[in-house]
Specification:
about 65% helix; about 80 residues; about 0% strand; mainly alpha
Length: about 80
């Protein structure tokens, strides 16, 4: 089974509809490659990192290394 198919199945098991799961799998593959180049780390390591983030996010957990952010402010017209 191809990595794309495995990721699609994983996303489906985490609750994504099939079309969304396929899109998520493609995005995970692309981002793992990007991070690998940016950080000069093995692609498998970056995929592992992304999968941990995916599972934590699905569980409602915020990783400790994610900085707190504020929502964007709406433009105020005077």
């Amino acid at each position: 089974m191809k990595e794309y198919d495995q990721l699609t199945q994983l996303c489906e098991r985490l609750g994504a509809p099939p079309v969304q799961a396929a899109a998520m799998a493609a995005q995970l593959l692309k981002r793992a490659e990007q991070l690998s180049v940016e950080r000069a780390r093995p692609r498998e390591e970056m995929m592992s990192h992304l999968l941990r983030l995916l599972v934590q996010g699905r569980a409602g957990e915020v990783p400790a290394d994610f900085p707190a952010t504020q929502p964007p402010q709406a433009d105020k017209k005077i």
